[in-house]
Here is the input.
Amino acid sequence: MGTHMHNRFTTPFIVLSLLSIGAVGAQTNPEILDATRSNVAKWMATQELIFKERKDWQEQKDVLQVRIAAAEKEVAAVEAKLGQSREALGRLRSEEAEGRTAKQKLVDSADWLSSSVTRLESDVRRLHPVLPGPVQEKVAPLFRRIPEDPQATRVAVAERFQNVVGILNEIQKSNGDISLFTEIRPLSDGKPSEVKTVYVGLGQAYFLSAGGEAGVGRPSASGWQWQAHNDLAESIAQVIEILENKGKPRFVSLPVTIE
Here is the structure.
């Protein structure tokens, strides 16, 4: 406002002064008066142009300041969002790392479980020959489920564990029982004959034929081994009577070999 007032009152004063000077000079030289008037006109036009430029610049400056302020707010908002994005990315990377760690633990656990069930299957296979014949027949379907090649099988580890547990449960049950079975076994004449066999757990067995032939059996790495013991026929017959509920429970003495 001060600049504008200065131009408004100072310029006419200067113009009047120049005109006065020009009037004095014109009495002696009209050309000087014309030149003076021309210069004054140009000077006034220049001053108006300067005033206009200053006004335009002020307006543009105000607009620019508004735009700068808006741009600064936008930059601040973008920086805030960028900060949030960085935090979110950091959390995502952290969760991804945790996910990879958890996945690796699962892989390690799966490998350990696979190795464990493979060892159990191998141990169960080694137990198979020492199982009594009737027990072998009972668990035969479970044994057939054991994969021939553990590394190439498509059977799930959980299913393999369930299968092994089923076999071990039957073995444990048989090991704690005194069982009576009817079997076919070669006798002294070499002919297969029907006998009744008493299994005491998985470590000892006794058989008795209808003809009175008796014997004792024990497990070995190649299967059960049987020896004739006709002197035990009466005692074995008493045990069979008790197991068949044909006789009263009583103490019966039979030899047991422990290794």
